[in-house]
Amino acid sequence: MSLLLFAVILISGLGYYQYLTASKNSSSAELKTFTVQAGEGGAIISQNLEREKLIKSVVAFQLYVWRAGISSQLKPGQYSFAQNLSIREIADRLWRGPGKEREITLTFIEGWNLKQYAAYLETQRVVRADDFLVAAQKKADWWDDYKVVAGRPKTVDLEGYLFPDTYRVYRDATAEDIIRRMLHNLEQKLTPELLTEIERQGKTIHEVLTLASIVEREVSTDADRKLAADIFYKRIAAGIPLQSDATVNYVSGKGTTRPSADDLALDSLYNTYRYQGLPPGPISNPSLSAITAVIYPTPNPYYYFLTTPDGAVVYSKTHDEHVAAKAQYYP
């Protein structure tokens, strides 16, 4: 009986140890500078890590580096640690040394969608595409750490919420690490002034991001985006389908300038030729320019627009004018 009790205690202890070393220290991705002086061993380093609130258990850290055989191989130098790292991750980086952290610059282009983000991360050998898509498309508890996603429909993923920008990350950053940075960035970009204006207009963040993602893909200048946003709002109010080629391309997966007749017939709620109003969610991750354009559109008398092969935007008040413009530029 005593042996059985000992075994139970041992197994429970090992389970708790595994939990302590593998679980994240906190939900914050904020970076902290941490310095290891020459001659410092695992005991002193672990105490300093706890004092800086980078780990929760000195004993678990010391036990991990002892079992891994690296307690005397932790390298001196200056490190930048995110507060949401686990004991294992911190210990492994201390073993590699500060010169081996290998930060990388990642630039996510405005208007890219999740699949394009994922493919880019894989080409940079940071995160596998499939891993990124799972983290961005399968609801996780940590999504709730960000108010910006709280009001989104529960049936949609993080498309549109991952702010396109340039980020510095570790090469061994996880998909969650990168997504957290992007969500935090979006929350910073949506200032109290913008949030107040969205609420004043009776709109939601999700609606704004959805239309901004379409505007982002349709036109490229700040002025044209403000005009296009107003056109889309008027069409919604009048019960006219948005008829955005960008939404059709999102469904088809193609990047064509002019969707085919078969593409236009695709049965999807994201096909704004077939269904009125906004699609269920964003089709890309929009820039601040597109977001601002949707919040502060420029009133105009137009209901139609098209982009010419050379990138100019032609606006029309009537359907007949629009048909004539299409015949002129796309005979």
TrEMBL record:
Q: Does the keyword Transmembrane apply?
A: yes
Q: A single GO molecular function, which one?
A: lytic endotransglycosylase activity
Q: Which CDD domains match?
A: MltG_like
Give a Gene Ontology cellular component term annotated to this protein.
Answer: plasma membrane
The broad enzyme category this protein falls into is lyase
Q: Cite the EC number.
A: 4.2.2.29
- GO biological process: what's one of them? cell wall organization
Site for Important for catalytic activity, residues: 218
InterPro entries on file:
MLTG-like
Note whether Lyase occurs among the keywords: yes
Provide the reaction this enzyme catalyses.
a peptidoglycan chain = a peptidoglycan chain with N-acetyl-1,6-anhydromuramyl-[peptide] at the reducing end + a peptidoglycan chain with N-acetylglucosamine at the non-reducing end
Question: What is any Pfam family matched here?
Answer: YceG
Keywords in alphabetical order: Cell membrane, Cell wall biogenesis/degradation, Lyase, Membrane, Transmembrane, Transmembrane helix
Function per UniProt: Functions as a peptidoglycan terminase that cleaves nascent peptidoglycan strands endolytically to terminate their elongation.
- Identify its protein family: Belongs to the transglycosylase MltG family.
HAMAP family (UniProt xref): MltG
Recorded protein name is Endolytic murein transglycosylase
Q: Source species, please?
A: Candidatus Buchananbacteria bacterium RIFCSPHIGHO2_02_FULL_56_16
